User: Fold this.
Amino acid sequence: MAAQTVLAVDAMGGDNAPGCVIEGVKMYLEAHAQSCVRLFGPAQTLEPLLGSFGALRPRVSVCDAPEVIGMEDEPMLAVRRKQNSSLVLGLKDVKAGASHAFVSAGSTGALFLGGMVVLRLLEGVSRPALAPVLPGLNGSFLLIDSGANADCQPGYLNQFGLMGSVYMNRVEGVKKPKVGLINIGVESEKGNKLYKEAHALMSAQKQYAFAGNLEARDIPNGDVQVAVCDGFTGNVVLKYTEGFAKFMLKTIKGEMMSSLRGKIGGLLLKGSFANIKKRLSSDEYGGAPLLGVDGAVVKAHGSSGGYAFFKALEQAERMVTSGMTDTLRQGLREINNNTEV
Assistant:
C-alpha cells in the first residue's frame, strides 16, 4: 500500500476562499485515495461546506483557526500577531510533523515570512524563493525567483539555480535540467555587477548544469528548464508572460469571430485552440513552490478556482513523495562546501 500523504491547507487564503479551496480539496481526495487533508480555518464556517463529501469526509480534518490573514494585513505584523490564523497554524502543523506539506492561496508576503519564521530556512539557504512552473515550446521550465526577493546578492542566484535544478529533477522528472541566468545578452560579460558576479559563481559550481546567460526572448522556448533571476525581474517576466498569453488568446478569438471565414476556420480548429488554451492556462501548473524553507510549501494563485487549487495540491503531493526537501538539503550542503556564496 502506498504511503499516506497528509496536506495542511489554508482554507481562508485567496480571492475565492473558502469555496474554491473546498472544491479543490474534494477533487484532490477523489484523485488520490491514499491522501488526507487537514483544513485550517474557522470551524463554524468550514464544517457546513463539507456536506457533499460523503465517503471522502473521514479523510478531511477541520482544524479550527479563528483568525485570518488578509491581503490588506502587513505581512510580518500579521504573522507575529495572528498566531491562530489559518496560515500560521497550517505552517506549524508541518513543523510539528502532523502534515507533510502546506498549501495556501493567501498573502504571498505572509507565506514567505511565515515560512522563514515557522519552518526556518534549510541550512545553507540565504533566502527562499518562489518558483512557478511555466509552459515552454519545448517543455516546461521553472522561473526562480518570481517575486520573493526584489534585491539579491550573487550567492542567492547561485542557490536559486541549485534549488530550481533539484525541483525540476525530483518533482517534474527532468533528468538533467539545464539552468540559465536571465540577462540582457548571452555573453558572460553582459549585465550589471550582480549578474556578472552571479555568472562567475554559477560557472564555477559543479552541483547543477549551468547553461550560461539566457535572453528574455529565449525563455519561452523551454530549452533551459530553470530560468534564474532576482525577484524583481522574475515578477516582471511572470506578469508579462501571463498578460501576453491572455492577449494572444483574445486576439485569436477576435480575429476568428470577425468574419464568416474566420468562424468556419475556428469551428474546424476548435479542438486545437482548446488544447492551446489549456496549455497556456496558469491553472494547469498549480502554484509556486516556496523553495529553501525546511518543508514543502506551495503558494497557489490568489485568484485560484477549484481546479487550479486542485493542481496546487497535486504539486504539493509530488514535492512530498519525491523527497525533494532532503535532496535539496544535501545539494545545498555540497554547493556551500565547494563555492563561496
Summary: The first helix runs from residue 19 to 31. The mean pLDDT is 89.
